[in-house]
Amino acid sequence: MSTLRFEALKEAINRNAVIITETDRRSAIFGENVFNQTTMMQSLTKDAYKSVMAAIESGSKINRAIADQIASAMKEWALAKGVTHYTHWFQPLTGATAEKHDAFFETIGNGQAIEKFGGGQLVQQEPDASSFPNGGIRNTFEARGYTAWDPTSPAFIYGTTLCIPTVFVAYTGEALDYKTPLLRALQAVDSAATAVAKYFDKNVKKVNASLGWEQEYFLIDNGLANSRPDIVMTGRTLLGHSPAKGQQLDDHYFGSIPTRALNFMMDLEVECMKLGIPVKTRHNEVAPNQFELAPIYEETNLAVDHNSLLMDVMGKIASRHNLKVLLHEKPFAGVNGSGKHNNWSLGTDTGINLLGPGKTPMSNLQFLTFFINTIKAINDNEELMRAGIASASNDHRLGANEAPPAIMSVFIGEQLTAVLKELEGVTDGKLSPKEKTDLKLNVVGKIPEILLDNTDRNRTSPFAFTGNKFEFRAVGSKANCANPMTILNTIVAKQLVDFKQEVDKLIKKKDLKKDEAIFNVLREYIKQSKNILFEGNGYGEEWEKEAKKRGLSNNKTTPEALKVKVSDKNLRLFEEMGVMNKIEAEARYEIEIEEYVMHIQIEGRVLGDIARNHVIPTAIKYQNTLINNVSGLKELYGSDFKKYAAEQMEIIEEISNHIGKINAKVNEMTEARKKANAIEDIVKRAEDYCFKVKPMFDDIRYSCDKLELLVDDELWPLTKYRELLFTR
Ligand code: ADP
Ligand code: MG
Description:
Elements: H1 2-14, H2 26-29, H3 37-43, H4 46-58, H5 64-80, E1 85-89, E2 101-103, E3 105-107, E4 113-115, H6 119-123, E5 124-125, H7 137-140, E6 145-149, E7 156-158, E8 161-170, H8 179-197, E9 207-221, H9 222-226, H10 229-234, H11 259-274, E10 279-284, E11 290-295, E12 298-299, H12 300-320, E13 323-326, E14 340-348, H13 361-380, H14 382-387, E15 410-411, H15 414-424, H16 433-444, H17 447-452, E16 463-465, E17 470-472, H18 482-509, H19 514-528, H20 541-550, H21 558-562, H22 568-576, H23 582-637, H24 642-677, H25 682-693, H26 695-710, H27 721-726
Parallel strand pairs: 1-8, 15-16
Antiparallel strand pairs: 1-2, 3-4, 5-6, 6-8, 7-8, 9-11, 9-12, 9-13, 9-14, 10-11, 14-17, 16-17
Bound molecules: adenosine-5'-diphosphate and magnesium ion (MG).
């Protein structure tokens, strides 16, 4: 085994960068492989084009004849680009993307064949995808599920395949994927936000939620990554001693990008350009060999698809460069983990960012309306927000003093805090003309100036306002953004519906003017949302205590965090907003909890295997060398030998102690797993895995890592942290 490590190292050290030269301007290749609006305009009849645009903008149906036309145009466009296959591309509840390729090719008798692709094949397919998790939906109702074209996310070509973004639903209508509830949540927030935006501008017809994700990842030499069974099997290292140098010098962060990594990034970015993914920013992150990539924000559904596609493409491009992308939230202990900040806002079809301050008092009141409603939504649903980012891998990061804690809070900066304070003092009921003028000039009117020099940044906040958007920072690097985005947009939708009702009631019953009513409702929201606002250090212990006093949840583990997804309150919320019915919500809960169990189970098995079959035999081998040495010394020096063999004998003992501990713990862990596996109730099983099995990982790792320090480097089979993190 140690030969694998050294061979991998030799190869890694001798690798040359795969040099990428860009011949075209990026703007010229952008969207080249996307069946986008321009392509459609060129290749569709006017009727067909109008029909697709209407489907995109208002969700109207596309009839069969038009679908045939679109399919045929798509096929011609794709064939001209050398495409041979098509696939309905979807996002099952594994969180990854799925595709099953079919050739355009069809036989027509007489030994002849043609390329064929009709409206039927475009609009709907029935993949035999019965092995995807469905949380019992399909067992209970109907065995089959189908995929249906989502025209709001354009078809694209990857390699030689035409990919058609689709939803995945059961024949009974229940969603079997992440996209369907997201589309419903976006619909809900559109309708609720449009109604509120109409207070300020009657011409608003649609509000789009926007998302700009920032993807963090590690980039490791492929050979080195493959030499570690834990990375191969679980995406992270389950053991490994910290190197002498980690990230303490901060010499990697924003530093010059290593050549191999840079060429990978260029290659990836070119591919992204062709796929219409508007990537813009790249830089080194805090940990060694950690990087970040960020696009220009897009409409949320498209942004989610683009992020899912990106995660897939990253892996493929990396292998061309003999690199491996690690998307896991915590691939290495002791250095920073990876997240995926979700920058989110709401924008109108009239071009207004509802979370961006405007130029007039009225537009700033609009800003404050959406700003305060968002805060209120998080305040009332903090625990659900936490549930939306829960996973076995993200548990390592949240609350590990490097990432936002498991406690949700909102950071808005000193100046906006002062604005809210002023608004809190607004008179109950009708406002005097003086108060109105004063508010408009001195409070609401001052907002743009305030934000211009708002350099206030708090890196420790999970949900921070950053000038013209909120940034949800606790999302995991590996996560499908659909899940947190479904939750965020649902709770904001619900909040805006409630807000509109309250304002309308005040206008009607108390005879208040529109702006008076808005001020009145916002004042109450500010009072009710104080608990969620926090400007201090989110990593500190004091905050944990303070948050507890405030009654905020602090669910550190996934089994604890997920529960709230199926609370009565939240089942009602999803149902009321038309996002998920009870069956769909419960199915997702079950799938996520089961996924948690499987992850910990696999990690336990892999760790047990490495500890027993790699670490212990190596330690024994080295111990034998020491024993031989001690016997030799005894032969040489007789009873005097201890003078020369004391150190060795100490190490021999230490090794035995660690071996003993590892063996005992691995046995104990295996027994605990067996016990857990026998528990029928999946929630209780998850708790066992979380609180009984997982804690033993640390003990096993501790002794293995100590052995790594004791054993001869030449013998050690597992590629070490310094080699994984500093080989460039
Ligand atoms: P930062 O200083 O946090 O890096 P940036 O302005 O560079 O801020 O933006 C970071 C991310 O936020 C980018 O991915 C960007 O596309 C996204 N973003 C900017 N404006 C919006 C918006 N209105 N809605 C959603 N995302 C946005
Ligand atoms: Mg950011």
